[in-house]
Amino acid sequence: MLPRTHVLALRLLLCASAGPALAADSRHAAGAALFLTTCAPCHQPTGEGVRGIFPPLAKSDYLMADKDRSIRIALQGTAGPMTVNGIEYQGVMPAPGPLDDQQVADVLTYVRSSWGNAGGAVTASEVKRVRAELAAADPDKTDPFAPLPKPPEGFKLREIVRLPVHGVKLATMPGADWIMVLNNSGEIYRLEPATGNLVRLLVPKDYAELGAGSLAVLGMTIDSKKRLYVVTNQRVAEQPWHINRVVIFRSEPLDTAGSPPKLTAWLRTSYPWGNSYYNHGVCHIAEGPDGFMYVSSGARTDGGEVDGGIFKKETVYWKGGETDYTAAIWRIDPIAEVPKIEIFAQGIRNAWTFAWNDRGDLFSVSNGPDAHRPEEMDHVEKGKHYGFPYQYADFPATDKPYPYTPDVPPGLIITPAIRNFGPAAGGSETKPIASFDAHSSPAGMLFCNDDWPASLRGKMLIGRFGNFLLDDSYGYDILAADLKRNAAGVYEARMTTFFAPLARPIDFLKVGKKLFILEYTRPVGKHGSRPMNPGRVLELSW
Fold first, then answer.
1. What are the boundaries of each domain within the chain?
2. What is the spatial distance between Cα 267 and Cα 282, in angstroms, rounded to a whole number?
């Protein structure tokens, strides 16, 4: 969901001092590397795309017709419809991450001169000009925010702030009059909800090891001792294959003003970078009722592939499937002098979040594969396996979504996902599913305790980011899940729509009798031609 970039620093340095021919070769190599990690997941390493889903860049009439348009798309993303080589596409392309002018120029120059394309180079000065034009344009006309939706009955809604960056996580602590907002490049902001005042506290260079490789920062929380945690992933070009270097940073207890904290590395680990372009990374972190820190580690594959697929000739990727550390929930003792990772549960493909109910039961919501399978909600218990990559949702293990889906290892017991009896998110009393519409991307989650309105007490709220695949829009809402054990003692869910429509809600946070909702972007749904510029923070109160 969140792009990574790979910067070849040595090559860029050579470009600054080399002659024109060597500089051009170096720029082309830098563009090729950026394309592989930023664009290839959708457009494929050969630029051929996926017919009807991701438009081709190879011999692309749409791409080559308008250089400035291609720069705009590279800067802020876009959405369909568009017609490429005679075929209509209705997909969504998010902005490819925090690329600077030269990086955007490099990747576009590479694309415009590859796979049968014969376009001229794109320069950093051209990108700078288009970026300035976008900044000067009236956003209310070029990319307006969606109108505020009607709040649920008994609630009030207001817009707190429009963000300059794509926020991914929210955090606060008891007694604070501020909220911290994290974006996936590692910037941390302090937001004062009462005034809408937004101040940048930290940037990646304040704490991360930027020289190691591209950075994705996907997790943040504040524990009961008022310590801030930040979870980072970096793709590092080590030998014999690239690795994902994971560092969890932690601060000393924060002061009441939320002053810029000093973050130091608390836990370090690594595993082979994703098989081909897949690497969901380590993301959500939260303190459990037992005082331990729990961490979600996503899959390094789409569906367990072990030969690299279309990347099988690439030597930088380890050709295995999942590792012990991936597709799992970790548990870590925060008191330990040297923190160690305990694998709490496995087989959970990509849990963007998890939460506990008032009985201490842990639940996660997980994003499914590119294959058309429902996405899961799991009751996560220590030592259990939840199926990935052997079994998906409520499909039997014999119904394999890919030819390379591995068989269930002998003796492995798979715990099935929670079945949703509806009426929302694809479930029904007669045809329950496990657990959400395919590709709807469940995101933030929290438990409603006794200070919520009576209609929500004891339920889980689950935000859905919304789909990129399929023609129709799925998600873009907050669900209320009523979780009850059946006669066999197994949790079942009855899900209703609590609040919709929302612009890709990715996280939310309860403070008192207020729910703060982080919208990732501006458009609601995947149709139209609007870019995916940064969203906002909303306040729902009762």
1. 9-137
2. 12
Instruction: Return d(Cα 480, Cα 492) in angstroms, integer.
Output: 13
Instruction: State the virtual CA torsion across 135, 138, 139, 141 in degrees, nearest 10.
Output: -140
**Tokens 């139209």 sit on residue:** 528
DSSP state of 383: T
Strands 282-287 and 293-297: antiparallel
DSSP-assigned states of every residue in 128-197: HHHHHHHHHS-HHHHSPPPPPPPPPTT-EEEEEEE-SS-EEEEE--TT-S-EEEEETTS-EEEEETTTTE
Coil, strand or helix at 220: strand
Distance CA 25, CA 300 (A): 31
CB atoms within 10 A of CB 431: 9
Phi and psi at 121, nearest 5°, equal -65, 150
Minimal CA–CA distance to 242: which of 191, 308, 305? Answer: 308
Please report the pLDDT score of residue 19 as a whole number. Answer: 41
Dihedral, 260, 266, 272, 278 alpha carbons, nearest 10: -40
In one letter, which amino acid is 474? Y
Tens of pLDDT along 304-362? 988 866 667 778 889 899 999 999 999 999 999 899 999 999 999 999 999 999 999 99
pLDDT tens profile 429-439: 999 999 999 99
What is d(CA 128, CA 125) in angstroms, rounded to the nearest whole number?
Answer: 5
Class level of CATH domain 9-137: mainly alpha
